[in-house]
Amino acid sequence: xxxxxxxxxxxxxxxxxxxxxxxxxxxxxxxxxxxxxxxxxxxxxxxxxxxxxxxxxxxxxxxxxxxxxxxxxxxxxxxxxxxxxxxxxx
Length: 90
Known about the structure:
By secondary structure, this protein is an alpha+beta fold. It is built from 4 helices and 2 strands, in the order H-E-H-E-H-H.
């Protein structure tokens, strides 16, 4: 997680959630750093394959996916989680 400018912008705004998307897997030190920062800001990590699955599946519910990611970060203190994609309610 080398983008320090992004961290500064995240910390300078109250009530924001940081969503970081990576095209490669996150390293253990990056995940640990984000876990530490969860005490100050909500940080959600995602890999690009999750985003692609959301975009490719017309029945995927991106709102539920995002809420599940935020819940995992805030309650379970896990910035990197992979919630199952659920079919949208009719």
